[in-house]
Design a protein that fits this description.
Number of helices of chain A: 4
Structural class of chain B: alpha+beta
Distance between the termini of chain A: 19 Å
Helix content of chain B: 10-25%
Distance between the termini of chain B: 79 Å
Number of strands of chain B: 15
Shape of chain B: globular
Oligomer: heterodimer
Helix content of chain A: under 10%
Number of strands of chain A: 24
Largest interface: A-B, 59 and 48 residues
Order of helices and strands of chain B: HEEEEEEEEHHEEEEEEEH
Radius of gyration of chain A: 23 Å
Number of domains of chain B: 1
CATH superfamily of chain B: Lipoprotein localisation LolA/LolB/LppX
Strand content of chain B: over 45%
Shape of chain A: globular
Chain lengths: 442, 253
């Protein structure tokens, strides 16, 4: 709470917070320093048993940018939050409370240097690849925070990493980007008992089972990750080629049997992060008033847990192709639509694989997003519908945003999940919720 | 009855007329293109410059809303539009490279392709702010002459050269004296009038260069919906190429 109060005070110092127009700071304020931020109150009410508050979160962001010259600047962003739901209810176990109740995190600390056609960004940052929104097909550099599934904004879902990111403009509209990081952090997954805890692998062991903890996030030169992106714009076709070498950011549970005579063998589940080589491309093209986009990523070395008892380590390799094709189009009456088809294709048999996000050799998803605005975009309804085609599990998220002023917005919405327990969206079938969010920017 | 003798005399005349028309048509088209090119000069002060645009939108009896933008322009096809007000939009930016457009949204964390024709605010489309190159985007044809508010004008019919521009067609009034832009009607491909624009506030904002510092756009159907674009804060300077690289949009925020 003290951190949030500090954010509030700094925000007040940064300027007249209630003004719609940006104003010059006080005379003592350095002109090269820009400070801005926002505060948000997020409330969620779970509709199913036990119908109760599931989020009562106060968040604050504070960003400062100091411009040293046209060729150099430093940007620092922090985010803090406190979720009072853990004090208001006793529904969540202590490990979840410790993991999700409060956080103060450095979201960005970037030194940007430019010289001619070279730009270098060094520090803690998000490096985002891809053309489509609301998808991670080629957004492979940063790990993700899935503790609230994929419901927050994507920039909040990405976990920042310490990295070196360099760009070189080879020619007009042709850019080469190289990335290297020793920050081999993994995805943040919800703890057991959390509101959006994932369904675990569908193992059926007769023997006792011990699950080892996941390795701690750490810096490692030996396990460092890196890759490149080559982007070009030709005749309106925006094309990128990517390659990234990384450890799988989602742990894979390798099995081994430990003899315990005269008792039965113990099954040890050890989370590991096998190396992946990701090759892909993206493209986008605008044909007024329609925009088409596509992303493809081939993950070489991808491994999955299997229930096949004859498999020695309980893990099989299935190189995986993820792709999407999307089209944005106006529907008339000021309604914009976006339709997106995505598929995950495994190169090999998928029977016995246990992840909710993998429905078979081919897993197909269809997403439709509709947005519009009334009263000069002060009342903005939107709808997101995503369906898993093979098992008809879906997510439906209507939302209504009300722009009260240039600084203040309120939004009411819902997240409805439907489907079988072992499907991506169906695993949260009992987590339907309504939400209310207030955001104030300064 | 067909008169072969008289007909044989007509052929050379017809040929001369056809050749004259064939010669005159490109000449007229050249003149139309020249007029549009000259009028464009009142909408851009230099080859490389920065300006601020305040857009005030009004709908019926509602109180007006104001959005602020800082626009970096280089050459005829490259511009970066930073959203500077109100606070809820700060951090966003638009990048136009030729006929391609991206928006950077802080919530998404990356640039995303969008069409020029998409609405930015009020009656203003992305292309109204990100591109000011009618001569590059449209083929012009002279329709005639009219007087608009006492100003004698050329009337031009502009047809989009490709589908990748903001409007399918523009009817454009340019003053005969000085070739200043005066008025424009913007049309969809269906022929529907989308909006009407009037140019005024002509000032010498850069030594030796007069600019239209105000563009008023009124909805084609609902005349009580309008947006006023005020241009100011013009600085002529060389802008580094990194401003026009979509991969740098986040860093430039």
């Amino acid at each position: 709470m003290r951190a949030l109060l500090a954010l509030l005070v700094l925000g007040w110092l940064a300027g007249d917070a209630f003004a719609d127009e940006p104003e010059a700071g006080p005379s003592w304020w350095p002109a090269a320093l820009r400070v801005r931020g926002r505060l948000a109150e997020e409330f969620a009410y779970r509709l199913h048993d036990p119908g109760d508050v599931s989020k009562l979160k106060t968040l604050g962001w504070l960003e400062g940018k100091y411009t040293l010259s046209e060729a150099a600047n430093v940007r620092v962003t922090t985010r803090g939050y406190y979720d009072a739901v853990f004090a208001a209810t006793d529904r969540y176990p202590d490990n979840v409370r410790r993991n999700q109740e409060k956080e103060l995190e450095l979201r960005e600390a970037i030194l940007t240097l430019s010289h001619g056609d070279f730009d270098v960004r060094v520090g803690r940052q998000q490096i985002v690849w891809g053309e489509a929104i609301s998808t991670f097909v080629t957004d492979v550099v940063n790990p993700k925070d899935f503790r609230e599934f994929v419901l927050p904004d994507f920039t909040e879902l990405r976990v920042p990493i310490w990295a070196l990111d360099g760009s070189w403009r080879l020619a007009r509209n042709v850019t080469f980007q190289g990335v290297w990081t020793p920050d081999t952090m993994h995805n943040r997954l919800p703890k057991k008992g959390a509101e959006f805890q994932f369904q675990g692998p569908a193992f059926q062991f007769r023997n006792p089972v011990v699950r080892l903890p996941d390795g701690e996030d750490e810096f490692s030169l030996a396990r460092s990750e890196g890759g490149f992106r080559l982007s070009a714009l030709r005749e309106g076709w925006d094309v990128s080629l990517i390659y990234y070498d990384e450890a799988d950011k989602t742990p894979v549970l390798f099995q081994r049997r430990v003899p315990q005579p005269p008792r039965p063998d113990v099954i040890v589940l050890e989370p590991r992060h096998p190396r992946l080589h990701i090759v892909g491309f993206t493209l986008a093209k605008s044909v007024e008033p329609v925009v088409i986009r596509s992303e493809v990523a081939v993950s070489v070395g991808k491994r999955y847990e299997t229930t096949d008892r004859n498999d020695g380590d309980g893990v099989v390799r299935r190189d995986t192709i993820d792709y999407l094709i999307g089209v944005d189009f106006p529907l008339g009456w000021d309604v914009d639509g976006a339709l997106q088809l995505s598929q995950k294709i495994l190169t090999g048999d998928a029977s016995g694989l246990t992840r909710p996000g993998v429905q078979g050799r081919v897993t197909t998803s269809l997403a439709l997003r509709l947005t519009t605005g009334f009263f000069d975009n002060t009342l903005n309804p939107s709808l997101l519908f995503v369906v898993g085609v093979e098992r008809a599990d879906f997510r439906l998220s209507p939302r209504l945003e009300w722009v009260l002023s240039g600084s203040l917005t309120m939004a009411v919405g819902a997240d409805v999940f439907e489907g079988g327990r072992r499907t991506l969206y169906g695993q949260f079938d009992r987590n339907d919720r309504v939400t209310f969010t207030t955001t104030w920017r300064f | 009855m067909f008169d072969a003798h008289r007909s044989s005399h007509r052929w050379p005349v017809a040929l001369v007329v056809a050749l004259a028309l064939a010669w005159a048509a490109p000449a007229a088209a050249d003149e139309a293109a020249d007029i549009v090119r000259d009028a464009d000069r009142f909408r851009r002060p230099a080859e490389s410059f920065v300006w601020k645009i305040n857009i005030t939108s009004q709908e019926a009896k509602k109180s007006p809303s104001t959005d602020g933008f800082e626009v970096f322009v280089k050459g005829s096809g490259r511009s970066l539009v930073k959203f500077v007000a109100p606070p809820r939009n700060v951090g966003r930016s638009l990048l136009a490279l030729g006929r391609d457009l991206w928006i950077y949204l802080p919530d998404a964390g990356k640039p995303v392709r969008i069409p020029f024709s998409q609405r930015l605010v009020g009656q203003v489309a992305n292309g109204d702010v990100a591109r000011a190159d009618y001569s590059g985007d449209y083929d012009a044809k002279l329709l005639g002459e009219e007087t608009v508010d006492g100003v004698a004008c050329h009337v031009l019919d502009l047809k989009a050269k490709t589908k990748d521009v903001t409007y399918a067609g523009v009817k454009y009034w340019v003053s005969k004296d000085g070739r200043r832009p005066v008025k424009a009607e913007f049309y969809a491909a269906t022929g529907t009038l989308l909006k009407t624009g009037t140019f005024d506030g002509f000032k010498e904002v850069v030594p030796g260069h007069v600019l239209a510092t105000r563009l008023t756009l009124v909805d084609g159907i609902r005349k009580d919906k309008s947006s006023v674009l005020d241009y100011g804060g013009i600085v002529v300077r060389d802008i580094p190429d990194k401003y026009f690289d979509k991969n740098a949009m986040k860093s430039l925020d």
